[in-house]
């Protein structure tokens, strides 16, 4: 295993197992990374060394007829997406690429990182979260033990469903070396219906109406005017945009688009984006492109807030009343991205108060290291849940070898 004093680069699963066992023997701790695109998300690393899994790359199984794919954890998502496209298939949860948002190049994120962070894009409202497509894994626990969970079939009932636990654990329970996912056929075509000039409260009502219809919406987002202008030249300039994506075979897309136009007529006149502009819009929403670190909001802190869809506008209003902020609404209003500037404590007090009023949870996605060290990056847990989290961590990693303090202090 090639290494430096503070970096261990694994070549295979045996190297990962050896690295964890070395850390146990030497009372060291490890930060688990793939390409490192999300290293600045979460509390600052408190580890003695970095375990680099980017060498564990490559698809190990792909059976298009069975809708299943296995890959080593360090495999770039872009490589998997390209392979699936050759068979007209896709990762239906539309994995987000936070690289540019965090000042990293686009297209470098790994499949292990996506699952460890449980990242899903706009299609989550239809296809579910990343964890819902996670069928199985091979991993090394903080005890230095290799284990397998799940399997290679969609209907799997073997043992405990640890995949749901590993998804969203940010590498603090186990180092995944190989993962298996469900894949699905890619839609033949798509179209996006646009409403222009709606305020946040009315936009949320329009999105609720669309989601409650039989139009089978696979994306619903609202971009205020100052955010929409950063997204695409195909969008009207100076107008807020409320977007609805419809996917499927062409006759069905046309029929459902017309039904949606009729349903949303009371909210104003609509326009339609064809396939390529539609792709570009939803890719920008998926990756939160208006708040990219390379853009004009790059110096702002960014919060990712989940709430009930009908509460999204109210939550943003509470934050905007106290902070200089801009917003992007995804998941029909249930996912609120907030870029905040010149606010004391990065707006944490205001954001947490808004969550308390409206319900949900908030994660500080982008902020300077000092702020990430001083603030609760992930949603603070109630006493009972915090105790359960510690027991789970103790079960997988009793010596605190894997990413100690990455999510919550002392865990």
CATH topology of the largest domain: Uridine Diphospho-n-acetylenolpyruvylglucosamine Reductase, domain 3
Q: Indicate the overall shape.
A: globular
Percentage of residues in helical conformation? 25-40%
Tell me the CATH architecture of the largest domain: 2-Layer Sandwich
Structural class: alpha+beta
Number of continuous helical runs:
13
The CATH C-level name of the largest domain is Alpha Beta
Number of strands: 19
Query: What is the distance, rounded to the nearest whole angstrom, between the alpha carbons of the first and last residues?
Result: 28 Å
Characteristic key phrases:
13 helices; five-stranded antiparallel beta sheet; 411 residues; Alpha-Beta Plaits; Uridine Diphospho-n-acetylenolpyruvylglucosamine Reductase, domain 3; 29% helix; 3 domains; four-stranded mixed beta sheet; 19 strands; 25% strand; alpha+beta
Brief rundown of the structure:
By secondary structure, the protein is of the alpha+beta class. The protein has helices at 13-26, 77-85, 111-117, 124-127, 163-166, 200-211, 225-228, 250-264, 275-286, 312-320, 348-358, 369-374, 383-396; strands spanning 3-4, 7-9, 30-33, 49-52, 59-63, 68-72, 89-90, 134-141, 146-150, 174-182, 184-185, 189-196, 217-223, 241-248, 270-273, 301-306, 324-330, 335-341, 361-366. It is built from 13 helices and 19 strands.
């Amino acid at each position: 295993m090639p290494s430096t004093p503070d970096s261990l680069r694994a070549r295979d699963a045996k190297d990962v197992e050896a690295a964890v066992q070395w850390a146990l023997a030497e009372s060291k701790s490890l930060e688990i990374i793939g390409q490192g695109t999300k290293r600045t998300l979460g509390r600052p690393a408190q580890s003695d060394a970095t375990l680099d899994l980017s060498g564990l790359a490559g698809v190990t199984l792909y059976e298009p007829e069975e809708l299943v794919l296995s890959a080593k954890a360090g495999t770039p998502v872009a490589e998997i997406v390209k392979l699936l496209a050759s068979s007209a298939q896709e990762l239906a949860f539309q994995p987000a690429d936070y690289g540019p948002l965090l000042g990293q190049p686009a297209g470098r994120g790994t499949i292990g990182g996506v699952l460890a962070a449980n990242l899903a894009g706009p299609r989550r409202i239809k296809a579910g979260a990343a964890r819902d497509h996670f069928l199985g894994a091979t991993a090394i626990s903080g005890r230095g033990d290799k284990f397998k969970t799940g399997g290679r079939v969609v209907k799997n009932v073997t043992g405990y469903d640890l995949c749901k636990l590993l998804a969203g654990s940010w590498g603090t329970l186990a180092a995944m070396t190989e993962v298996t996912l469900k894949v699905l056929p890619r839609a033949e075509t798509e179209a996006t219906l646009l409403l222009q000039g709606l305020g946040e409260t009315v936009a949320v009502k329009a999105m609720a109406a669309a989601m409650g219809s039989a139009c089978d919406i696979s994306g619903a987002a609202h971009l205020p005017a100052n955010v929409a202008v950063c997204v695409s030249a195909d969008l009207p300039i100076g107008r807020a945009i409320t977007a609805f994506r419809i996917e499927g075979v062409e006759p069905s897309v046309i029929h459902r688009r017309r039904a949606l136009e009729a349903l949303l007529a009371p909210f104003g006149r609509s326009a339609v984006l064809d396939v390529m502009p539609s792709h570009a819009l939803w890719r920008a929403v998926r990756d939160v492109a208006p708040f990219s670190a390379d853009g004009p909001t790059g110096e702002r802190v960014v919060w990712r807030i989940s709430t009930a869809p009908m509460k999204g506008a109210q939550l943003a209003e509470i934050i905007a009343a106290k902070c200089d902020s801009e917003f992007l609404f995804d998941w029909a209003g249930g996912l609120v991205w907030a870029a905040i500037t010149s606010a004391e404590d990065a707006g944490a007090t205001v954001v947490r108060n808004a969550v308390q009023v409206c319900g949900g949870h908030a994660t500080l996605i982008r902020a300077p290291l000092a702020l990430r060290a001083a603030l609760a990056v992930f949603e603070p847990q109630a006493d009972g849940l915090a105790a359960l989290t510690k027991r789970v961590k103790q079960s997988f990693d009793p010596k605190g070898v894997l990413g100690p303090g990455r999510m919550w202090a002392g865990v």
